[in-house]
Amino acid sequence: MNKNIFAENILKNKVVFVTGGGTGITGGVARALTEMGAKVSITSRKQENLESMANTIRENGGECFAVAADVRDFAAVENAINKTIEQFGKIDIVVNGAAGNFLCEAKELSSNGFGTVVDIDTKGTFNVCRAAFEELKKNQGQILNISATLHYLGTPMQIHVSAAKAGVDAITRNLAVEWGKYGIRVNGIAPGPIEDTEGMKRLLPEQLKEKLAKKIPLQRFGKINDIENAAVFLCSDAANYINGVTLVVDGGQWLSANTFM
C-alpha cells in the first residue's frame, strides 16, 4: 500500500482481529494495518491457510498471530478471540472478511449452497461481532465489515452472495445504532471488481473483463491496495465520527451499471 499518504504508525498500539485474513482483500487489509503500526490476529478455517500471510507480515517487521476458526461455529470464534487476547492483551478492532462465493443461477442453486454462503458471510459476521462485544465495549473499539455492491442492483448468478452481503450491511447499520452508546463504531467497505484477487480470476471470464472495465467511470478495475487505504482510514482516528457507513470503493461502477456509455 502507499504508506506515504498516512501519518506514520497511525494505528500504533491497536490490536486487530481479522477473519479471512490469510488471503485476498482481507489478507491485504491485515498486512496494511500492521504497516500502520497495529498488531493483528488473522483467522480462517485452516491453520495452513494463514501461515504464508503471517510469515509475510513478520518478515516485514509486523506482529501477527494466526489462529484457526470457522466463523460459522460460535464456540470456535470465542476461542480465537480469547487466544488473541491472551497473545496481545486486548482487541481494539475487528475486521470481518471471511466469505464464500461461486457462480450459480438461482434455478440451479441448492438450499445448502445458498445457506452455506449466508452462514459464512452473514452469520459469521454476527458471530464474530457478538463474541468480541465485551472486549470492544471495554476498549471503545470498532468493527469493519467487508461487504459488496452485488445487492445494490440485480446480479445474475449471485443471489446467494447478494443476500448474504445485504445481511452484512444490515448488521453494520443495526450494530452502529445499538452499540454506538458503548463507544463502538461499526462501518463497512463494499469493494467493486478488484482485479488482483482470486475471486476476480475465478468469477469473471477473461472475455468480459475489457467490457466491464469500460463500464466503470474511472475506466479501471480496483486493486487490493484501494481497499487497504479505505480500511486504514476507517480504522484510524481520522474517521472517529463515522458510524454506520458502508463505504463503496468501486470507481463508481455500480452507479453506471445500467448505462449504455
Describe this structure in words.
The chain is α/β, with parallel strands linked by helices and 261 residues long. It has a single domain (11-251), classed as NAD(P)-binding Rossmann-like Domain (Rossmann fold). The protein has eight helices and seven strands; from the N terminus they run E-H-E-H-E-H-E-H-E-H-E-H-H-H-E. Helix 4 links the parallel strand 4 (93-96) and strand 5 (142-146). Helix 1 (24-35) packs across helix 8, helix 3 (74-88) packs parallel to helix 4 and helix 4 (111-139) runs parallel beside helix 5. The model has no long low-confidence stretch (mean pLDDT 93).
First-last Cα distance: 32 Å
Placed side by side, the strands forming the largest sheet appear as 3-2-1-4-5-6-7
The name of the CATH topology is Rossmann fold
Helical percentage: 40-55%
The CATH homologous superfamily is termed: NAD(P)-binding Rossmann-like Domain
Q: Please describe the biggest sheet, giving its number of strands, its sense, and whether it closes into a barrel.
A: 7 strands, parallel
Q: What's the count of strands?
A: 7
